[in-house]
Amino acid sequence: MRRHLIIAAACAVLVGCSSTSRPPSPFDAGSANAGRIQLQVDNMDFNDATLHAITDGGRERLGTVSGKGQGNFTIDWPFTRDLRIEINLLASDRYTTPRLTVNPGERVRLRIQTPLNRSFLIR
Length: 123
Hints:
Distance between the termini: 57 Å
Strand content: 35-45%
Number of strands: 9
Mean pLDDT: 85
CATH superfamily: Domain of unknown function DUF5300
């Protein structure tokens, strides 16, 4: 009887160790973030930047990223659609990025450049 328990325990350990599944991503379907996207911002300009997300559904204020700073924002994103980001530099210019089609759960990066019209969105 004891031998059977040892064999069963060894099999359970081997099965547990041989699993090739990856850890769940917070952006996988079924997670709390599945209907959202994450926007990571690198502001390479000296001025603070106020950001707005622009979609077919309207315009949403995201927040501010300080000059030469970084920021992270989470945006509700229930389905695939185009995203543009409006960048308003403090006491300076305004620029809207070209469209980028984004799926729910994706991470997108915005790089604010000098001059402002060189700024871009990437996956």
